Amino acid sequence: RSIKSLTTSPSSHILRRGYASEAAPDRKVAVLGAAGGIGQPLALLMKLNPLVSSLALYDIANTPGVAADVSHINTRSEVSGYSGEAELGKALEGADVVIIPAGVPRKPGMTRDDLFNINAGIVKGLCQAIAKYCPQALVNMISNPVNSTVPIAAEVFKKAGTYDPKRLFGVTTLDVVRAKTFYAGKAKVPVAEVNVPVVGGHAGITILPLFSQATPKANLSDAEITALTKRTQDGGTEVVEAKAGKGSATLSMAYAGAIFADACLKGLNGAPDVVECSYVQSTITELPFFASKVRLGKNGVEEVLGLGPLSDYEKEGLEKLKPQLQSSIEKGIKFANQ
Ligand code: NAI
Prior knowledge:
Layout: H1 3-8, H2 12-20, E1 28-32, H3 39-47, E2 54-59, H4 63-71, E3 78-83, H5 88-92, E4 97-100, H6 116-133, E5 138-141, H7 146-160, E6 168-170, H8 173-187, E7 198-200, E8 207-209, H9 222-233, H10 235-243, H11 251-268, E9 274-281, E10 289-297, E11 300-304, H12 312-337
Parallel strand pairs: 1-2, 1-4, 2-3, 4-5, 5-6
Antiparallel strand pairs: 7-8, 9-10, 10-11
Helix pairs in contact: 3-4, 3-11, 6-7, 7-12, 8-9
The structure holds 1,4-dihydronicotinamide adenine dinucleotide.
Keywords: Mitochondrion, NAD, Oxidoreductase, Transit peptide, Tricarboxylic acid cycle
Pfam families: Ldh_1_C, Ldh_1_N
Binding site for NAD(+): 33-39, 59, 119, 142-144, 253
């Protein structure tokens, strides 16, 4: 590229510089479950994010070590570690964004729903504290089963009188990250240029990548699209099996979580055109929660974008996922209200 194009085009490096400077507003990010497999690399990535001024790392144990370690990195944010429930309030106070990767991960042979019994209770407790200490924060829910933990969070916030659907997000970014990687490999296009919306939910067939809308365009066969769709839906299981009992995706999830949190921060700071897929309260289908492209802004969700044109294969996938997603939503709501 010529020097002229670098200095005069409104290219991303200029935008990035604008939002990356020390003049960015103060923003506190809290990570709940910060000592875990996702939590640690996510803490690292958030420490590298220049939009963060304060990074609070909370877990039921082991956070002092993680916080001391990460705090030595010479980037903008001040890091503090909080260990045990008595310190949860301090970790949350004043947070703009709360990221929740707390809870148990899958082992081979488990579905995300098998995690429900343990993680539902963990998420419920953490959300009660969020309602008390930082009801204005944007909540990024990573803990599985996301299809149910997001409805649980919504019910907890409703009970506390703090629910704002614009501020609650299920993090489905890893599905998008996987769809992009797998598509780029098959279509033989540069992975950095790839965009693929992924809609629905975050478990098995509820993960619906819309490869018909993928860019750059490629002429893939129906069989290739089917294989890509299945690989995206089973991406988590691929990692669970490869780790053979040592957990599920942590590094790629930390990356995806950091991308999504960064988008939330950019939105809060007023950056234009921040769009990511996320599982949110929605009216674009008959389901009360649904993942689709979402425009992020100063209040969180600015606009839930529609699905766009679907191929027949995607239309079929959409109809198939609805009953499963509906029942996961109902399970979450029932749990929260019992
Ligand atoms: P991990 O077991 O390595 O870490 C979980 C951490 O949560 C531990 O440090 C544990 O002490 C902590 N924790 C447990 N109860 C807590 C509580 N009440 N408050 C605060 N912290 C608590 O598990 P990993 O691999 O980090 O996974 C975490 C969650 O993320 C799992 O539910 C997993 O299924 C989910 N996940 C979600 C993905 C997504 O795409 N949304 C992708 C991959 C995993």
